[in-house]
Amino acid sequence: xxxxxxxxxxxxxxxxxxxxxxxxxxxxxxxxxxxxxxxxxxxxxxxxxxxxxxxxxxxxxxxxxxxxxxxxxxxxxxxxxxxxxxxxxxxxxxxxxxxxxxxxxxxxxxxxxxxxxxxxxxxxxxxxxxxxxxxxxxxxxxxxxxxxxxxxxxxxxxxxxxxxxxxxxxxxxxxxxxxxxxxxxxxxxxxxxxxxxxxxxxxxxxxxxxxxxxxxxxxxxxxxxxxxxxxxxxxxxxxxxxxxxxxxxxxxxxxxxxxxxxxxxxxxxxxx
Length: 272
Hints:
Blueprint: H1 6-34, H2 52-57, H3 61-93, H4 99-110, H5 118-128, H6 133-158, H7 161-169, H8 174-185, H9 187-202, H10 206-211, H11 220-226, H12 236-261
Helix pairs in contact: 1-12, 3-6, 3-9, 3-11, 4-6, 6-9, 7-8, 9-12
């Protein structure tokens, strides 16, 4: 056995370096192929550097898919937040018998795989005439509501009701109380719900594939799938640039909401 005290730390450094190489290699492949107009799919230094792949990945049908993805993701996140906030606040403040059992029943139903409830949702959308991206938003909102309501109810429960009562005595309306007290003190929960609803809808594949119906309505998740085999060949430069653009909005949304998501739970002070 070696008596060298640096031996364990050296072994740890080698192991961490090995893991870092494994972790970084896919990203290095993406970047090197995305900026190489002559990309062939190998992990190597680019023979040349240019924006050609990014221009192709943000023009034509790809640009339309990007707009469709933004519409679906932002629409789902916003609608989920609005509906879940109203329902969660009512469940938090109204003493309705069996409210917790009702909420947990919804959560248990959400445990069903989406494929198990796809058929009734599809036929309901068909009957309503919304087999389009609007229907995707409605379907994903319905699927998101149980967890969003549960999370937001827990946040609203921590907001001291004494603050609301004091504001009501001063003449504030319910909307004012919500806007000035409840929602600001629950902004961490609101940010978490919006972020996860956005990223879930952004990455959704099955519902857009069945609901959108036409190529012009497809989002980027389906465009990325189709980019793997265009005309029997793979354009690695286009695929790498498309993948980077596809990942960028979720990362950008995270950094925009990070401060709010890190603020912790509301109402840690005044209680009772």
